[in-house]
Amino acid sequence: MNELHQYQKPESAEALALGTDPVPAGPYYQDDYFALERESIFKRTWLNIGHVCELPEPGYFIVRELDFANASILVTRARDDVIRAFHNVCTHRGTQLVATDSGKRSTFTCPYHGWTFNNTGELRGAPDFERFYVEKQDCGLHEVSVEVCAGLIFVNLDPSPTQGLRDFLGPFVDQWEQLPVARATTYSEYVYEINANWKLTYDNFQENYHLRFIHARSGGGGAVGEENPFGYPIRYGFHGDHRTQEIWSNPSPVLSDTQKFAFGKLIPALMQKDALQHPFGRSYWATFPNLFMIGTPTQPFVHYVMPVSARKSRGVIRLYWVGEDTNASERFGREFSMTMARDVHSEDRRVIEAAQRGLNSGALEHIHLQSQEVLLRHLFTRVDEKVQAYKKALAGGAV
Amino acid sequence: MRQSSLLPGGFETLEPFAEFWAADTAAKRAHCRDISNESSRQDFYDAAVRLIPLALEYLDTRPLAELGDSEQRLMRLVLSFGHVAMAVELQGSEEAEHAQWRPFMQITTTPADR
Ligand code: FES
Ligand SMILES: [Fe+2]
């Protein structure tokens, strides 16, 4: 018998410090709570919205919608190679400047009256501008804070963030920079809309309790097994607002013939790109508020859950890869890996919506969390701290 | 005489499956799985399962950018096989139910699409 599993060990002091009381249900469906989260968290926290591989050279741009803030963000790479982000809003009368979600262009012309902006944000030209009562240099696009870590692009809607991205991510920075995602040049992506609160959605991916029930067929038993039937992780970590787990690895997972075959086809390509061996193969990072990353080399996914409203969210799941498909085997391995993850995630989406429907009824005042759901408790604790502080500041007239 | 072969030599037995399954993007291949019925999945799976390793061995001998039409079609069939294998080997009798939920996870782009 190997070392004791987490569920056989006493809980850590850090975990116990979070308490054991039930958690209020209201924050998982109520509009007023969400309005506070939006102001106290989402409008002032670093949020991942893309990857530098989408802007491989000067002139490329992407546009991302942040529904919770009714904001559309334009991210550019200009000739100086600097990545900048702007509100995708013409500074004349507010028209949305760019209507496509990505492309290559070094200037942007507003469809309304033809104001043209450089991809560095300056207003470059405007028809009949002499008739305005303002200077061109005062009409640049409104900048949004943007920083990159391990290739991942983060924006922060706070005009002067209290913390830079690296300080915010703390110990994750060094770890992530050793991962293939930091060198990724391409990705497989699927996205979803879900009628569920962002925390309820995110929480599903923070516990392994559901694995054996929801993913009995698709899950492959990689993280659950006879020795560890509920899939307890090897270890949890708490890092400020963020958390981690080291996922338990079943020494004899049940894999289908094609699963074995497909991983066998993917692994040589990963090896060749030095993307197979790294110290974080079973690591899982939950970055506040809404981002996950998994180190698994064969399914290296990054997933964020963007809130839309109290009971609606949007998820983006990407498997980041190094280099284009080098041959047919790698192409097959990558597509199969995505297909597998998508089967699993569609099972998650379905059950999360069902949970939301139940909560929306208001029948429950509280939800109960067991020891393996400690990461959910940590997220709620951290969210609620910020919400209550904001509420207090509001009441005190400080906001 | 046959006019032109749909698939490279040695893979003729897969030709009847090409029209439906050799779709050109990952999203379309996933969709083929969603709208197929059990017997068409099983037929394709049974016909392909032993040929897939050979097909990859064959396709791996040339750069992806240089695949001709019939080779490209074979590549797509191999990719579709992966989707079908999830249904046949893992979802089994739950596949029809599962197919109702999968389309909500919308595939937008993959390296194979570009
Ligand atoms: S609103 Fe953009 S040019 Fe007038
Ligand atoms: Fe799950």
C-alpha end-to-end distance of chain B: 36 Å
Helix coverage percent of chain A:
25-40%
Largest sheet of chain A: 7 strands, antiparallel
Query: What is the CATH class name of the largest domain in chain A?
Result: Alpha Beta
* Major sheet characteristics of chain B: none
The number of distinct helices of chain B, counting runs of at least 4 residues, comes to 6
**Which consecutive residue ranges of chain B, at least 5 long each, have pLDDT under 50?**
none
Main structural class of chain B? mainly alpha
CATH arch. level architecture of the largest domain in chain A? Alpha-Beta Complex
Mean of pLDDT of chain B: 96
Throw out a few tags for this protein.
heterodimer, A: 399 residues, alpha+beta, Naphthalene 1,2-dioxygenase Alpha Subunit, Chain A, domain 1, Rieske Iron-sulfur Protein, 2 domains, seven-stranded antiparallel sheet, 9 helices, 19 strands, 27% helix, globular, B: 114 residues, mainly alpha, 55% helix, 4% strand, binds FE2/S2 (inorganic) cluster, binds fe (ii) ion
